[in-house]
Amino acid sequence: MVILSAEMQKELQEEERIYPGSDGKPMADNTKQLRWIVIIYTGLASMLKDAPNVFIAADLLWYPEHGHPEIRVAPDVLVAFGRPKGDRTAYRQWREEDTPPQVVFEIMSPSNRFHEMMQKLAFYDKYGVEEYYLYDPDRGVLDGWVRREGRLQPIEQLQGWVSPRLGVRFELDEDGQLILTRPDGQRFLSPEEIEAQREEALRAAEEERQRAEQERLQAERERQRAERLAARLRELGIEDVE
To answer: Is residue 227 part of a domain?
Structure first.
């Protein structure tokens, strides 16, 4: 555990005052936007749980420039490779070895405006994001950009696209629902689907336990029957019967 000096603690407290961890805005404007933020965040967190140097956050303010607290954005989900896991009140880039998030996700809501999203695209382009994905669940539209030749360039074909950084496959079904698939073939699931899988696994485990118990009891009954038969044969003076 790192023990900070009183001077360092004071410096960090002052920094958190200047670069606060909240902009006063809600995480999501509606339940649909929140659900997709949760699906993407939990899917990535689960997929990368054993990677010690990948930091994932949702709705966390990112300050790319020291000395400019007005320059900030809160991606719906961000992924920073090369940065350790752990809690943060904000992503202050100068505290992260000047490493920008490489992958960001945004989920459109009815309150978002085209100009606002283009401003975010310009921000991510300027400050080094390598992959930017924008999903509109109401319209069933997915857009994406990947850094080529130093700039974020549109991804022309996103159906079946595989993220260079994440290895995640992007698809839209016929209803415009986003399908994200991990490199191991597992699909990103909603909390309800995760809970349903957990309950199914518990049910299957209980059925297996009961089956094993039945087999154990049957084997015990067979053993006892064999012992009774052997004892009866001994009473009759029959010792070696195949």
So the answer is: yes
Question: In which domain, by residue range, is 235 found?
Answer: 190-242
With 90 as the cut, is the pLDDT of residue 17 above it? no
147 and 210, same structural domain? no
Query: Token pair 């079946």 is at which residue?
Result: 160
3-state secondary structure of 80: strand
Tell me what pLDDT residue 168 has: 98
Residue whose token pair is 């459109």: 108
Q: How far apart are CA 140 and CA 117, in angstroms?
A: 16
143, 171, 188: which is the final residue of a domain?
188
* Number of domains composing the chain: 2
* pTM score of the predicted model: 0.78
Would you say 35 and 27 are in contact if contact means Cβ atoms under 8 Å apart? no
Same domain, 134 and 196: no
Q: Cα(106)–Cα(113) distance, rounded to whole angstroms?
A: 13
Q: Where are the alpha helices (DSSP H) in the chain?
A: 6-18, 31-47, 114-126, 191-235
Q: pLDDT digit string (tens) for 180-230? A: 999 999 999 987 777 776 766 677 777 788 887 888 888 888 888 888 888
